Amino acid sequence: MAMIQVLGSEFEYDEAGVGGRGAPAVVLAHGGTTDRRMWVHQVPVLADRYRVISYDWLGHGGSAEAVGEFARHEQVLALMDALGVERAVLVGSSDGGKLSLDAALLAPERVAALVLAGSGLSGHEWPTEFGQLYAERVYAEVGVERLGRYYSGEAATVDPADLEAYTAALVEFLVAGPGRSRRDLDPQVWTLASDMYRRVTERAWSGSRRKSEARDLEPAANARLHEVGVPTLVVSGQEDVPAILAVSDILAAGVRGAVSVRLPEAGHLPALERPTEFNRALLDFLGTLPLWCRR
Alpha carbon of 179 to those of 172, 198, 294: distances in Å? Predict the structure, then answer.
C-alpha cells in the first residue's frame, strides 16, 4: 500500500509483480461501488508475469475525497505518468471499464489492450426499465425521500439501519443479480462486497460527492467504438442485470475484433465471484498480445 499525488489529489494504490518501471504493466480499475480490494484474486496471478497496479478512485477505499470537476479517465493516465508507466493493459470493472475505454480513446498510444468486465459505456442511455428495477430492488429499502436527504446532505446523521439495508439490497441486486439472492453467493464474496459497498455508500451519504462532479470523455465512447484499435476482451456474468449485459453486447459488437466471454453463475463482479474462470480468460487473452506485453 502506498500513497501518490496525482493531479493534486492523494490516491492510495498497490503495486506488485515482476520487474521495475520497464516491465509490462497491467492497471486494474475498480467500479463505482467497490474499491481496489475487488481484485484480490487477480493481483497474485498477474504478478507472476506482469507489473500490476491497482488503485482506489477518489472517494473510495484509502484515497482522498474528490473535489471540484474531474475526469477519471484522465486520472488513470496521470497515475500511469506518476508511476512511470508508458503503456499498459487496462482492466476495468463496471465503471472502471468505462473509464478505461475512455482513456484508450483519449490516448490510444498509452493503452496496449482493454479488458472490460461488466463495463459501463460513456454516452450510453440506460433504459427506463433499468431505473425502475433499481428503484424497486434497492431504493425501496430506504425510500426515495430518505435517500434524497442523505445524498443532498439534509440528513443530520446516517441511520445505521438504513445503511445496512441499502448495502444488502445493492449487493444482492448487483453482485448476485436480479434473478438470484444472497444465498447464491459464497459468504466470503458477500462479506467483502458488502464491506466495499457499505464504505462507498457511507462516504457518499456523508457528503463527499456533493463537493465534486465527474465528467466522461467528450465526445463520448458510445459513438466511437469503431475507433478502438487495441485488442479488447469483454467479460460479463450471465446473472448480471440485463441492461448491463446489453452494454457488454454493444461493446463486443462495436469494437473491432473484440473477444467476448460470458461466465455462468456470476453477477456484476465475475472477477470476485468466479476468479478461476475469470483469471483463465484474462491470462489466455493477455497471452495473445505481442511479446512486448508479456514477460
Answer: 10, 22, 39
Cβ atoms within 10 Å, residue 137: 16
Query: To which CATH superfamily is domain 2-125+214-293 assigned?
Result: Alpha/Beta hydrolase fold, catalytic domain (3.40.50.1820)
- DSSP at 267: -
As a whole number of angstroms, the distance between CA 285 and CA 64 comes to 33
Cβ neighbour number for residue 21 with a 10 Å cutoff: 10
* Residue type, position 238, single letter: Q
Q: Is 125 helix (H, G, I), strand (E, B) or coil?
A: coil
Segments making up each domain of the chain, as ranges: 2-125+214-293, 128-210
In the numeric block, which cell numbers belong to residue 239? Answer: 446473472
Query: Grid coordinates representing 149?
Result: 436527504
Measure the CA dihedral 73/77/82/85, to 10°: 140
Q: What is the model's pTM? A: 0.95
Question: Which segments within 104-206 are labelled E, that is strand?
Answer: 111-117
Does residue 295 surpass a pLDDT of 90?
Answer: no
Output the CA angle 271-272-277, nearest 5 degrees.
50
Q: Which residues contact 157 (CB under 8 A, 6 or more apart)?
A: none
- Asked if 114 contacts 101 with a C-beta cutoff of 8 angstroms, the reply is yes
- Find the helix or strand (DSSP H, E) in which 26 lies: strand 25-29
Place of cell 488503485: 55
The cell numbers describing 92, all together, are 476495468
> CB 17: neighbour CB atoms within 10 A?
20
Residue range 220-254, pLDDT digits in tens: 999 999 999 999 999 999 999 999 999 999 999 99
